[in-house]
Amino acid sequence: GIVFQMMKNGRAYRCEIRKLTYGIRLVNAESATIEQCYIRDHTTKGYGYGICVLGDGMSSGGSTAVIRESEFTGSRCNIASNSPETKFAVIGCRFRDDADITRSSIDAHPQGGGDLQYIVMDNIFENTIPTTLRTGTGVFVRNTFRESCSNFDVPLVRGRIPEHNHKFVPQADLNNLYISDNRNESHNSLFG
């Protein structure tokens, strides 16, 4: 895969990345752009991440990334994040999965505490569990959730108990979510 570690201005452009433990891994990256990439089939048990946006540990450091105009399919988790200084934006991407994928497309792990920040804007979600949020501050605007997201009986933007591997994480704080102008074609509730 691609690793941006402790660097500025990393860029992955028009890459196809498939069948790895981590497709793209950002570790304390000051700024990175992932654009027009096809990221798929990362299914390693316990890992299988398309993109990881993180710090030097689960609860320290952080990375900043813009992920745009990319397509994700078939990974255990398409975008995962943690670490308190992490900030990322997902703009104009397409997420589509198979029925046997039961993890979220975008996952905010609880170790980021309330400081983790994300923007999810102008994306299309098909046959997937769009998000699992256990911490941080986020904006969800102008996303389209296709009818096929009804295949999973969960809210489209879902807050969860702040656990990681069945262990409660006390510093987690899901706060200040702004949800507006999304198109819900599924039968699921938008938030829960």
Number of DSSP-assigned strands: 23
Strands in their spatial order, largest beta sheet: 1-4-7-10-13-16-19
Shape category: globular
Let me know the average pLDDT: 87
Let me know the largest β-sheet.
7 strands, parallel
Number of helices: 0
Helix and strand composition category: mainly beta
Low-pLDDT residue intervals, each spanning 5 or more residues? none
- Our measurement of the CA-to-CA distance between the termini, rounded to an integer number of angstroms, reads 34 Å
If you had to describe this structure to a student in words, what would you say it looks like?
The protein has 192 residues and is mostly beta strands. It has no helices and 23 strands. A 7-stranded parallel sheet has the order 1-4-7-10-13-16-19, with no helix packed on it. A 7-stranded parallel sheet has the order 2-5-8-11-14-17-22, with no helix packed on it. The chain has a 7-stranded parallel sheet with strand order 3-6-9-12-15-18-23, with no helix packed on it. A hairpin with a 2-residue loop joins strand 20 and strand 21.
